[in-house]
Write a structure and sequence with these properties.
With 269 residues, the chain is an alpha/beta fold. Helix content is 45%, strand content 23%. Strands 3-2-1-4-5-7-6 form a seven-stranded mixed β-sheet, sandwiched between helices. Strand 4, helix 7 and strand 5 form a beta-alpha-beta unit. Helix 7 packs across helix 9. The chain starts with 5 loop residues before the first helix and ends with a strand. The model has no long low-confidence stretch (mean pLDDT 95).
């Protein structure tokens, strides 16, 4: 049975991320991908020294640390997440950085915790986990100052090459027993329209491809929260076996390297 209650969906997501702290830390220390995505999104959104930025879905703080470096001592970064375990790791990592602060908060209730205007709000690898995009972006609009920027990126899939075959989707269409069956929490295809309806202007979109080896793809999807996105009803150890079969299938197709493609959107208040 498909879960439709947004609050139950949030509880499931929170639980998955609470279990993913060490895996995320290990993956990021080895590859630095979330930091890379943060720099790409920050460049797109024009993040500069002295800005105040909200980092939504900050996780263990890789994105927050990158943003803190970009805004400098005169700027400020507020990391937002609703996984207490993720925030515990982030706070420990950046306890000596004066220009960072972390808040436990549902992204749909941002205006209840942020009582000052900010220059930018970034959803680095998190917007697709928001069950109600309209409510999420409305609260972002309220917190942003006039002329403020909202930016977000989201995983589109694993491809044989940028613009090529979506490999995981192809396995699903072939009805392979190890094919991913997870449903998307949010329909990111609606983001441009939702941004416009919320009141944002100068809306832009694009893609960021990341070239990966098969080993890195396996480590990425071995993170509990990521494997749950592929196989949400399957126990973790069984998910890993299905993932192995899926990646073997991809490798047998001669796809190397692989490309993880991220879409992005931005808008201005």
């Amino acid at each position: 049975m498909t879960v439709k209650d947004p609050e139950i969906i949030k509880q499931i997501i929170r639980s998955n991320f609470d279990k993913s702290v060490q895996s995320y830390e290990s993956y990021e220390q080895k590859y630095g991908r979330f930091r890379q995505l943060t720099y790409e999104l920050a460049k797109i959104c024009g993040i500069q020294e002295g800005m105040t930025v909200c980092d939504i879905g900050c996780g263990t703080g890789a994105s927050t640390l990158a943003l803190a470096e970009l805004v400098g001592e005169d700027g400020r970064v507020v990391g937002i997440d609703f996984s207490d375990e993720m925030l515990k790791a982030a706070r420990a990592k950046m306890k000596n950085l004066a220009n960072t602060k972390f808040i436990s908060c549902d992204a749909e209730r941002l205006d209840e915790k942020i009582d000052f205007k900010v220059d930018a709000i970034l959803y680095n690898a998190s917007i697709f986990l928001m069950p109600n995009l309209s409510r999420t972006l409305r609260t972002a609009y309220e917190v942003l100052g006039l002329g403020g920027i909202v930016g977000m990126n989201y995983l589109k899939g694993m491809f044989s090459e940028p613009g090529g075959v979506n490999l995981f989707l192809s396995a699903k269409e072939e009805r392979l027993e190890f094919a991913p069956y997870g449903r998307k929490v949010a329909d990111v295809r609606t983001l441009p329209d939702t941004l416009s309806q919320t009141g944002f202007k100068d809306i832009e979109e694009g893609v960021t491809p990341l070239e990966m080896t098969g080993d890195e793809v396996k480590e990425f999807y071995s993170i509990p929260a990521q494997s749950a996105g592929l196989y949400p009803k399957t126990p973790y150890e069984e998910r890993l076996k299905m993932l192995d079969a899926l990646l073997d299938h991809v490798q047998n197709k001669g796809c190397a390297p692989l490309f993880q493609v991220w879409g992005w959107n931005k808008g201005k208040k």
